[in-house]
Design brief:
single chain, 257 residues, alpha+beta, YojJ-like (1, seven-stranded mixed sheet, 9 helices
């Protein structure tokens, strides 16, 4: 009798905990996709529904229940591509994030610096997105799988014409180039529309949607740029370039550890 009394007392809390854990893992699973922002909104809707249930707001609970059901159906229709790809990858998910030691990150930065400065001298355009916390699943799937160790030589071979992969950008994760010829979203910021080209807008665009760090070389001028958080960071020389990447990426690596 005591057991059932205790269970009835803790049952609502247990249900809320299980629902929240499940929804959290769904959010993590779809991080970096178009559906992610919608799912975040639904998580707040779920919290509102649970709060209404707890305090006994029956009419509000009923309305939220109907709205939640309609939203789920809409998601299944609108984001069917993301759901299909997500389910296909379900058995391939790693249970840990890629973490690198500081020395490894510095070595990667040197490889990238070597490549972009050689490409700059040749006025060969390039676009490199470095994945950080936000997963770049959608953008990776827009290109071709590479899965190779980051090296200056490989980066140059990808971008120097007539390489079939020179259009679009490459995406790195940890110490590997995971995809090439990827399509990045163009920035719709009106401040950039008339003063920069397509490659610049792509560099800014992906940093507006994610926390990726982007390195870009202009095909017209050979100018090297770094983009993060929807803005360009001035690069005056190679030393400054390495410092920018080191500040952003070494700090990120320490945070993950």
């Amino acid at each position: 009798m005591t057991f059932f009394w205790i269970w009835n007392f803790i049952k609502p809390a247990a249900e809320i905990f299980i629902l929240w854990i499940g929804f959290y893992h769904i959010l993590v699973f779809f991080e970096g996709t178009r559906a992610f922002q919608v799912l975040k909104g639904l998580s707040f809707l779920l919290l509102a529904f649970l709060g209404a249930q707890i305090v006994g707001l029956d009419v509000l609970s009923w309305l939220l229940t109907k709205f939640f059901a309609i939203s789920i159906i809409a998601i299944l229709i609108i984001f069917q591509q993301e759901l299909r790809h997500g389910l296909a990858r379900l058995g391939q998910q790693h249970l840990f994030n890629v973490t690198l030691e500081e020395a490894e990150i510095v070595a990667i930065i040197e490889e990238i610096a070597s490549a972009v400065y050689k490409l700059s001298r040749q006025q060969v355009g390039c676009l490199i997105a470095v994945e950080r916390e936000t997963k770049l699943k959608n953008y990776i799937e827009s290109g071709l799988n590479v899965d190779a160790q980051i090296s200056s030589e490989l980066i140059q071979s990808i971008f120097v014409p007539p390489s079939p992969l020179h259009d679009g950008g490459i995406i790195t994760r940890g110490n590997r180039i995971v995809a090439a010829s990827c399509l990045f979203p163009l920035s719709d910021n009106p401040n950039f529309a008339k003063i920069i080209g397509t490659r610049h807008r792509a560099a800014i665009g992906i940093t507006e949607h994610t926390d990726a760090l982007v390195v870009m070389v202009s095909e017209q001028s050979g100018e090297i740029s770094v983009a993060a958080d929807g803005r360009f960071i001035p690069v005056v020389n190679r030393e400054r370039f390495v410092t920018i990447l080191r500040d952003l990426l070494v700090g990120e690596g320490k945070k993950k550890r």
